[in-house]
TrEMBL record:
This is D-3-phosphoglycerate dehydrogenase. Residues 318-387 form the ACT domain. Belongs to the D-isomer specific 2-hydroxyacid dehydrogenase family. Pathway: Amino-acid biosynthesis; L-serine biosynthesis; L-serine from 3-phospho-D-glycerate: step 1/3. Catalyzes the reversible oxidation of 3-phospho-D-glycerate to 3-phosphonooxypyruvate, the first step of the phosphorylated L-serine biosynthesis pathway. Also catalyzes the reversible oxidation of 2-hydroxyglutarate to 2-oxoglutarate. SUPFAM superfamilies: ACT-like (SSF55021), Formate/glycerate dehydrogenase catalytic domain-like (SSF52283), NAD(P)-binding Rossmann-fold domains (SSF51735). Gene3D superfamilies: 3.30.70.260, NAD(P)-binding Rossmann-like Domain (3.40.50.720). InterPro entries: ACT-like_dom_sf, ACT_dom, D-isomer_2_OHA_DH_cat_dom, D-isomer_DH_CS1, D-isomer_DH_NAD-bd, NAD(P)-bd_dom_sf. GO terms for molecular function: NAD binding; phosphoglycerate dehydrogenase activity. It comes from the Bacteria. Its EC number is 1.1.1.399, 1.1.1.95. Pfam families: 2-Hacid_dh, 2-Hacid_dh_C. Keywords: NAD, Oxidoreductase.
Length: 387
């Protein structure tokens, strides 16, 4: 029997995939695994029973990845599962910023019920007119799951697309149309593009990446879209650029005190992934990954431990050890097993920076003190014996 806790509303389409042997709990003290969306876990004190956290979504800046790794808690996310939902909202953002559609709709609401509204609208409409996106240049910063979809869709809408991503993975590159201009420095995007959209994670390197200097390199009247994270943009600097009109419009999915309600700012209440399809995709992927980890020890799509997959566990026990990535760990594990006459049928070890993971399929039934003895080895963080 395993127990899971949901720290946000997670789609039933995913939760219903848990078999009957899984029970939902409201108490973290009972939970083997946690499911979360945007709730912040930075202040959470994780009890020892928690083995994994699944972020049903992409961004993991709400989860203390290092703290979790140190406690032997594997954190997963669900890459790409909500990318289409975000892409569609970004396209809406491009269009909302290109004419004053929102201002126009508000005008109609304010004059609702008036006899002469049709005629008045014809006189007023020039106030809300704008440009078309066809033929304009779009700069996409970050060409992962979302950025690639946005870039390709914008091409189909007739835009000229410039893409910037110095860490582009081979898989992401395969998803990109060859008609996208590959840009090697951010300045070129700033210099060339009429619209710029951000699709990078917020990490130390990207925090505040849009600041006074980057803004000053952008064209006069640029439209900036941010469906990634508020912290990517230095708000004071952006406000200044909005006030002078250098930035014509800022479209963001992240309401903040400083920017909400300001002129030229279109704020959406973090709706990028809020579609039935995205919520269901994320929840399904999160549940499958957690189940695979609990039952087979496999790590797929982790953001703090290496991915490591030995397939479905057979009838013999499988031992899994989360540990620091230092020399002689495997030697110590195999020595301990050998001393007890346990034969190893299969073994896999993978590392990622400071952390590593070893999975061992044993031929014999485990001896009672095995987990405790392994835990006594220096640099071991967590041991699990899956029977
Ligand atoms: N608004 C929403 O509801 C919503 C939904 C999903 C994701 N997001 C945000 O969007 C981000 C991206 O999501 P994704 O699914 O595309 O993630 P992803 O991991 O597939 O793509 C991120 C891309 O950014 C690139 N990158 C990293 N640092 C960079 C840098 N300094 N300059 C340029 N590129 C850089 C990476 O190489 C990667 O290709 C998430 O981290 C999250 O913060 C928001
Ligand atoms: O990073 C993400 O996946 C998005 O910001 C979605 O967040 P949400 O699951 O809270 O809607």
């Amino acid at each position: 029997m395993y127990q899971y806790q949901c720290l946000n509303a997670v789609s039933e389409a995913g939760l219903s995939l848990f078999p009957e042997s899984y029970q939902r709990t409201q108490s973290m003290e009972e939970a083997d695994v946690l499911l979360v969306r945007s709730a912040s876990l930075h202040e959470t004190v994780f009890p020892d029973n928690v083995k994994a956290v699944a972020r049903a979504g992409a961004g993991v800046n709400n989860i203390p990845l290092k703290t979790c790794a140190e406690k032997g808690i594997v954190v997963f996310n669900t890459p790409g599962a909500n990318a289409n939902g975000v892409k569609e909202l970004v396209i809406a953002g491009l269009l909302l910023a290109s004419r004053d559609i929102i201002g126009g709709i508000e005008w109609v609401k304010a004059h609702a019920g008036e006899e002469q509204i049709a005629g008045a609208a014809e006189k007023e409409k020039k106030r809300f007119a704008g440009q078309e996106i066809e033929g304009k240049k779009l700069g996409v910063i970050g060409l992962g799951a979302i950025g690639a979809l946005v870039a390709n869709a914008a091409l189909h809408l007739g835009m000229e697309v410039y893409g910037y991503d110095p860490y582009l993975s081979v898989d992401s590159a395969w998803n990109l149309s060859r008609h996208i201009h590959h840009v090697r420095d951010l300045e070129e995007i700033c210099r060339e593009c009429d619209y710029i959209t951000l699709h990078v994670p917020v990490v130390d390197d990207t925090k505040g990446m849009i600041h006074r200097e980057t803004l000053s390199q952008m064209k006069d009247g640029v439209i900036l879209l941010n469906f990634a994270r508020d912290l990517l943009v230095k708000e004071e600097d952006l406000l200044e650029a909005l006030t002078t009109g250098h930035v014509r419009s800022y479209v963001t999915d992240f309401p903040t005190k400083k920017l909400s309600g300001k002129e030229r700012v279109i704020v959406i209440p973090h709706l990028g992934a809020s579609t039935d399809e995205s919520e269901e995709n994320c929840a399904r992927m999160a549940v499958r990954q957690l189940q695979d980890y609990l039952e087979n020890g496999n790590i797929v799509n982790s953001v703090n431990y290496p991915n490591c997959n030995m397939g479905k566990k057979g009838k013999n026990p499988r031992l899994t050890v989360l540990h620091y990535n230092v020399p002689n760990m495997i030697g110590q594990f195999t020595m301990l097993l050998a001393k007890r006459g346990v034969n190893i049928a299969d073994l896999t070890n993978k590392s990622r920076g400071r952390y590593a993971y070893t999975m061992i399929d044993m031929d014999e039934t485990a001896f009672p003190e095995l987990e405790k003895e392994l835990l006594r080895i220096e640099n071991v963080l967590k041991v699990r014996l899956i029977l």
